[in-house]
Write a structure and sequence with these properties.
It is a single chain. Helix 5 packs across helix 11. By secondary structure, the protein is α+β, with helices and mostly antiparallel strands. The longest helix has 21 residues, at 195-215. Helices cover 41% and strands 16% of the residues. The protein starts with 12 loop residues before the first helix and ends in a 12-residue tail after the last strand.
Length: 731
């Protein structure tokens, strides 16, 4: 609840003078004086609402001010007699929150709800009354903010409280927009509270609300909240940064000189552009100082070039790179590939006349509004639109961006609050993103980005990309090609990488536990954890002592679990063995990949399934040692030949160039298909290749193994899970 806020001096006041969009002190004073005068209207508009109305009309010339007037009169009457801890009339708080949103361009419905956001909780006004007076949409927003107020933010580290907050805001991002503005005004007026309470509120703001502001793209609110938190939690670093900024303020500004030259260049090129110097906020300056140690004048801000059309952005880029010395490594195109929070801009860096490097942002005026206000700049998400170019990946559901939909899906599918909170906190802490270009269309219902482009946190691997692209279908992923080269699923991706995910045709495939070591995104980690914890008896692919194409051990190693050996992909009925257990389903074990006419035995596992192992499989000995009774199994008569099967072979050889290519060619010559392959690192000039192969006929196994042994350098070919002694099927 916001009634506890007070109105002392604010340590972040110096940052306001550096040009950030925030509520002017004169506006605050005007609201305070007008609130004391009461709701007496002038020309139909209450005195206190004049400044809000002027700002709102600047963004929305046709706005219905009558609705705002009625909302203000209800709020002022309801809160009359209530005071803030500073002694001001309480109505100054919802007015200030509304002004913050108005400056960011919020539409009338949001402003109406912000004026009323505390009435249902703190006064006798009911939600039904709000709906009768202002409609269902305003009522929904007020109810959502009220639910957020009831969440104990002091215990926001408690997983269940944050889950409630997420659900309350999940169906309409405007709820969170109002809450962020509410928190910003409270942070501005936090100074007279006890230091320990200031620190508690600042920590929650840092850990929860600032990351959400980043996700919503509301950079104007995020930047100011960061500075206010910085001043409270790190007062010494804040004071040092502020002193450095003031020290440089008395020196010539290299960015101002560069801006003049850029204006001249663009004017001569006939490009209509607005060239500005955008100061960095204190936290950004502090980060630059930590990264580069020495703070230059050009590092205190960035050059901002605003144009009318997208094409003009690239024209400006061409002129800058032609007339100035660019830093090519700093170029990023967030227009062609927008960030997850709708942010679009061209980023580059050029050399100032003084020799300093100046970061430069190029965007349209509309992009700039979205960059500052995020989802607030999108207006009413329910309003009909004719914009066919709207970013489908983030606005497919018009009530919320795509990342918020994913958060809601995680909380629905993760019953353990602690697991959900840990994953969500990790996700919110990720403030850098990479763009990966996927080849091949995603399956229906996948969460892949539009046009094969997906955004991932920096440091993500192919595992993360697979689950972002295919959702639960990523369980079947067996490998990847990164920039055209075969790569393991553990490969870390970089910005601009081209990715092709290789999927197994078997729908019963699943991940291995080692995938969790390579998954960074909550979507991937939660999906993998759910699969591993589920009562599944199949795995992603057959495996042997080696590794699959992905470079990670197969999930079939779950065969050592007490509930029984891991089972494997369902084999066609014509190839299944018969178990001496009436009505039991039969599966072939992936750890030893039995094929006819191997001697086999079986073990019953959960669900009444019998898993078939080769008699020489080490798992059989382990099961017998634990007292697990075997089940008799035998091959069907039709399975003795003429039907396909899988088998895992180990080829041991002396390391040499082209060995993998020669072995693959020998396998193909025998009509076998490679399902997965892996090469262990050479040891003492010896190397082991592990292949899982699909054979059209089990009878062809001996000739296949002979062909592989004839490859120069290969000194042995073994069945997976088999001792080195010769056996029936080994030639």
């Amino acid at each position: 609840m916001s009634a506890e806020a007070t109105n002392p001096g604010n340590p972040g006041a110096a940052g306001r003078r550096r040009g950030r969009r925030r509520l002017e002190l004169t506006g605050l004073r005007r609201i305070g004086r007008a609130a004391l005068l009461g709701p007496a209207p002038r020309d139909g508009l209450p005195h206190a609402l004049e400044h809000v109305a002027k700002v709102h009309r600047g963004h929305h010339p046709d706005a219905d001010l009558d609705t705002l007037t009625r909302a203000y009169l209800l709020a002022e009457t309801s809160h009359r007699g209530q005071l803030r801890k500073s002694g001001e009339p309480y109505i100054t708080h919802p007015l200030a929150v509304t002004l913050i949103l108005a400056e960011l361009g919020a539409e009338t419905t949001t402003l109406t709800a912000s004026l009323l956001h505390d009435t249902v909780e703190d006064t006798d006004v009911t939600l039904d009354q709000v709906q009768d007076l202002f409609g269902a949409e305003v009522s929904y927003l007020v109810d959502g903010v009220t639910k957020l107020e009831k969440v104990d933010y002091g215990a926001a580290a408690e997983p269940e409280t944050f889950r409630k907050m997420l659900v309350a805001t999940g169906n309409d991002v405007r709820v969170m927009s109002i809450k962020l503005a509410d928190r910003l005004h409270n942070m501005r007026t936090l100074g007279v509270m006890r230091p320990e309470k200031q620190a508690r509120i600042a920590k929650v703001t840092r850990d929860v609300l600032i990351p959400l502001a980043e996700r919503l793209g509301v950079q104007a609110l995020k930047a100011e909240l960061e500075d206010l938190v910085f001043a409270i939690l790190h007062p010494e670093e804040y004071a040092t940064t502020r002193a450095l900024v003031l020290e440089h303020a008395s020196r010539p500004d290299p960015l101002t000189a560069l801006a003049r030259r850029v204006r001249t260049v663009l004017d001569e090129a006939g490009i209509d552009a607005q060239v500005l110097v955008q100061p960095r906020h204190f936290v950004s300056v502090h980060r630059v100082r930590l990264a580069h140690r020495e703070l230059t004048g050009a590092a205190l801000g960035r050059l901002l070039v605003l144009v009318a059309e997208d094409a003009d952005c690239y024209a400006v880029l061409g002129e800058l790179h032609t007339c100035f010395t660019p830093v090519i490594s700093e170029f990023k195109d967030f227009i062609a590939a927008p960030k997850f929070n709708l942010y679009q801009s061209l980023h580059t860096a050029v050399t100032c006349p003084s020799g300093e490097i100046a970061e430069t942002l190029i965007r349209t005026h509309q992009m700039h509004r979205v960059a500052e206000a995020g989802v607030i700049a999108l207006g009413n998400p329910y309003a009909p639109t004719d914009d066919v170019d709207a970013p489908e990946g983030e606005r497919a559901d018009p009530t919320r961006p795509g990342w918020l939909s994913r958060l809601l899906e995680w909380q629905r599918t993760t019953p353990d609050p602690d697991t959900f909170w840990t994953s969500l906190r990790d996700d919110l802490a990720q403030d850098r993103e990479i763009t990966v270009f996927c080849t091949g269309a995603p399956p229906d219902g996948s969460s892949g980005g539009t046009g094969g482009v997906i955004g991932l946190p920096a440091g993500s691997s192919c595992v993360d990309a697979a689950y972002e692209r295919h959702g639960e279908g990523a369980h079947c992923c067996i490998g990847a090609r990164v920039n055209g080269r075969l790569a393991t699923l553990s490969t870390v991706l970089h910005d601009g990488d081209s990715l092709q995910l290789l999927m197994a045709p078997d729908p019963t495939a699943g991940p291995s536990p080692e995938w969790l070591d390579h998954a960074r995104t909550p979507a991937a980690r939660l999906a993998i954890a759910r699969w591993l914890a589920g009562p599944r008896e199949s795995c992603a692919r057959p495996s042997g002592p080696g590794e699959g194409l992905t470079g990670e051990p197969s999930a079939c190693r779950r065969a050592e679990e007490p509930d029984g050996p891991a089972a494997d992909p369902v084999v066609p009925a014509s190839v299944l063995a018969v178990a001496d257990l009436p009505g039991a389903a039969v599966r072939l074990a992936g750890c030893c990949t039995p094929v006819p006419p191997d001697a086999v035995t079986g073990f019953a596992v959960r669900g009444g399934t019998v898993t078939v192992h080769r008699a020489l499989c080490p798992v059989v000995a382990r099961m017998a040692a634990t007292g697990r009774p075997p089940v008799g199994v035998r091959w069907r008569g039709a399975a003795q030949g003429g039907h396909g099967c899988r088998v895992t072979l180990l080829a041991e050889a002396f390391s040499r160039p082209q060995l993998l290519a020669d072995l693959t060619e020998a396998i193909a010559s025998q009509g076998a298909a490679v399902v997965s392959a892996a090469v262990e690192p050479p040891h003492e000039q010896r190397v082991r290749h592990t292949y899982t192969l699909h054979l059209p006929n089990p009878a062809g196994l001996p000739s296949l193994m002979r062909a592989m042994r004839q490859v120069p350098g290969v000194f042995d070919v073994l069945r997976a899970g088999k001792a080195r002694q010769p056996a029936a099927l080994q030639p």
